[in-house]
Structure formats: C-alpha cells, structure tokens
Design goal:
This protein has 11 helices and 7 strands. The strands form 2 sheets. It has a 4-stranded parallel sheet with strand order 1-6-2-5, with helices on both faces. It has 310 residues and is an alpha/beta fold.
Length: 310
C-alpha cells in the first residue's frame, strides 16, 4: 500500500484547496479507481446545498452559513476546487458521498504559504505531499482542528463497516493528524449543532475573481474543455495566452485602434517578463497583479484595464 492508504479499505487523497493542479489529479485518480464511497472534509449540514450547487454548474454559487459571530463560513461551488470536482464525479458515477467533517459554530481559518502546485507537472503527487509533511504543524490539543481530525477519524471507522473502497478528500494540513487519530483511536467530542443551515447564493459576475480558485477565464476554459472532452493539462498556460488575445481585442475595439504595438513579438516579450517577475516572487504561475503590472509597463493603463476586464 502507498503512503496515502490508511487501511485496506481507506485511501486518502490530500489536497491544497483552490488548486486546479490538485483538481486534475483528484479527477484522474477517482475515475481510475473502484471507489464505492467518497468521504469529504465538509460538515454534514452542507451536503444538500453543496450538491444543489454542483447540479447548477457551470453557474458559480456559494454555499454559505452564518456564524454566531456574524461572519460567514462558505464553500465556493467552483469546478476548479478539488473537493467540488470529486463530488461532481461521484454524483455522476453513482458513488456514495459522505460529508464527515466536524460541525462548528465558528470556523478557524488557517494561513499558510504553500509551494506552487504547478510543480505537480514535473513531480509525483506522492512526493509533493510528502515534502509538505516537513512544514505542517500539529494542531494544539482541544483546538478546532484537533477536534476535526479526531471526529473525521471516528467517522472513517464507522464507514469501514459499510464500504470496501473509501476515498477520503481532505486538506493536506489535516491528513497526517487524521491518520494519527485513526490509528490511535483517539477520543472525540460530540458535534454541537450549528445555528443556521447553509444557504446557497449566486455570485455577481464582477466579483467572480474573488470566489474562484483560478482566473475566471481559465475556469471557463476548463468547463469548455470538459464539454469537448479535451485535455486540460496545459489550460493554465493556454488560458493566459487567450486572456492576452482577448484583452487586445477589447483594447483595440474600445479605443477604435487600427494600428497598435500588441503584436506576437510584443506578447512574447510580455510573457518572458511575466515569467521573470513570477519567478522573482517564488512562484511558477503568475497572479493577476503580475499580469496587469506587466501590461501597464508594455502598453499603458488602457491595456492593463483590458487585461483586467478579460
């Protein structure tokens, strides 16, 4: 058994939430396995609204729950999210879906800088996750994330009695501690019922960038490639190129230009500059700020705005 196997019946597929690279791995591994149960690290009360949102794809929605503090805990129904991709496939393939995370009134977000998952193109999934183990901190006892790990481990013991091939999708931050709690059969706290059941909301087009894991246009390309049964391995690179072409069309049409300097040679220099800035920031793929800053330096504010609008 590999490093992701918890037992003969349970296999982990740890992910970095919001990473399209992990989404592709989850899709490929789930479709190539004989999974009869998919367990995800989301609380049970989210199941009906999350699955409703998945049925509405490609429309982007948010499954949101109001906390007692007045803030909102939400799950973006984004096709480039690994958990959403897994649930989408499980639904289509008739695989049982179980939401096994701990329900809480106030979720405690964690801030951590992960390495760029684009590296998965050139290294194995197992090696990438194993490397992260060196930097993952153990949650303190009795904290929310410690309770979550213990509860999920208990749920997996329960599922083992009903299913033979269980695939667990969880954060790479939780994977080692769930495994530890499972092996040591650590005691767990009972769930406290949340104040409100989650509700589903639409997302305004102008704010999609803040809700999606990838650029909105790249998410759109992922859905197009999926419908056309095309490989999406290079969709990030192709997507950035298409964003530039679309931005050029917006720029020339908006300003009614017949002549401009946005030639293929200019774009080649632009992409080289973007690459250099991205590497200087210790990343492998550019963010929106890098694309816009470079566009401004090459063709001024109007083209930078066109890139933003694209």
């Amino acid at each position: 058994m590999g490093i992701f196997y918890l037992s003969k019946k349970i296999r982990f597929l740890p992910v970095i939430h919001g990473s399209a690279s992990f989404t592709r791995i989850i899709r490929d591994r789930l479709l190539s396995s004989s999974t009869d149960c998919l367990a995800v690290s989301l609380p049970l009360e989210f199941q009906s609204t999350v699955e409703d949102g998945i049925n509405r794809l490609p429309q982007i929605t948010l499954c949101s729950q109001k906390e007692s503090s007045g803030s909102y805990n939400y799950v973006p129904i984004d096709p480039c999210q690994p958990v959403i991709m897994a649930l989408r496939i499980a639904s289509q393939e008739g695989i049982s879906r179980k939401f096994i995370d701990y329900s809480c009134d106030n979720y405690e977000p964690r801030k951590i800088n992960f390495p760029d998952s684009y590296a998965l193109r050139h290294m194995s999934y197992e090696k990438f996750c194993a490397t992260l183990l060196l930097s993952i901190k153990r949650p303190e006892t009795k904290t929310l994330h410690d309770k979550r790990a213990r509860w999920i481990a208990y749920q997996l013991h329960q599922l083992e009695m009903d299913f033979k091939n269980i695939t667990v999708i969880c954060s790479v931050l939780d994977w080692p501690w769930i495994k530890e709690a499972y092996n040591e059969r650590k005691p767990y706290d009972k769930i406290i019922s949340p104040l409100e059941n989650p509700k589903i909301f639409g997302v305004v087009k102008e704010t999609l960038f803040f809700a999606l894991a990838e650029f909105p246009y790249i998410t759109y390309l992922n859905e197009i490639y999926r419908q056309q049964i095309k490989s999406d391995k290079e969709v990030v690179v192709d997507g950035i190129k298409e964003i530039l072409i679309k931005a050029r069309n917006i720029y020339t049409k908006k300003h009614k230009l017949r002549f401009h300097n946005l030639t293929s040679q200019t774009f080649q220099s632009y992409l080289q500059y973007v690459r250099n800035l991205t590497l200087m920031e210790s990343r492998l793929t550019p963010d929106l700020y890098t694309l816009i800053t470079t566009a401004k330096q090459f063709s001024g504010d109007p083209f930078a705005i066109a890139v933003l609008e694209a």
